[in-house]
Amino acid sequence: MPDTSAVDTPELVVSVKPLSGRPGTSIDRAISFKTAQGLGNGLIGVPTDGIVHLKLLLEALLEGVLATGQVNAQAAGQCVRCLGEVTMPVEVTFQELFVYPERADGTASAGQDFDEGQPTVVGQTVDLNPAVRDAVVLALPFGPLCRDDCPGLCPQCGVPLAEQPDHAHQMVDPRWAVLEDILEDKKEEG
Ligand SMILES: [Zn+2]
Ligand SMILES: [Zn+2]
Question: What whole-number distance in Å separates Cα of residue 40 and Cα of residue 42?
């Protein structure tokens, strides 16, 4: 049974009816959609309602339909060093074979080895949601940076060092602090 709860973007459930029983034929599609759920990891991702463009080629094979997709979107997140905003383009391709259910069932006799999780053509449609989600998530960095050489935050006071490159603290050894107080007093006296 297809798991309909996993279908978060209906535009990505695409009819392959014209390909049915016609190996060698193909369909070109360009699909733009808004994400129903954000696509990403906890630090960066395509936000909910983010626009995603998908260029799709669906090719009819004997055993099923081969989907080749090119995804373009804009991801947003937070720099792991300075916690500033990070935006980056996501450009990623994926390829997924959707087997015809009758082929998937007959794998033993056909001598072909399909994974248990092998996606199938369901009701003459293919659901590209998992493929698009996986491709986008895998393309995103685990430690996003606002720029490669982001200097991060000041360990003393936490200001972003990129905004205040000359930022410095007087590094006073606590043992000298007493002496400094004395000197300050002297200055005031003088
Ligand atoms: Zn940063
Ligand atoms: Zn500081």
Answer: 7
- How many Å separate Cα 113 from the centre of its chain? 30
- Residue 4 per-residue DSSP state: G
Phi and psi, residue 110, nearest 5°:
-75, -15
74-126, pLDDT tens digit by residue?
999 999 999 999 999 999 999 999 999 877 665 544 445 566 678 999 999 99
Q: Nearest bound ligand to CA 83?
A: 1
The Å distance, Cα 136 to ligand 1 centre, comes to 22
Q: Measured between alpha carbons, how far is residue 131 from residues 89, 90, 94, 124, 126 in Å?
A: 18, 15, 7, 17, 10
Question: Ligand 2: distance of its center to the CA of 161 in Å?
Answer: 8
Q: Decide: 127 and 56 in contact? Cβ < 8 Å.
A: no
- Ligand with minimal distance to 148 CA: 1
- In terms of pTM, does the model score above 0.85? no
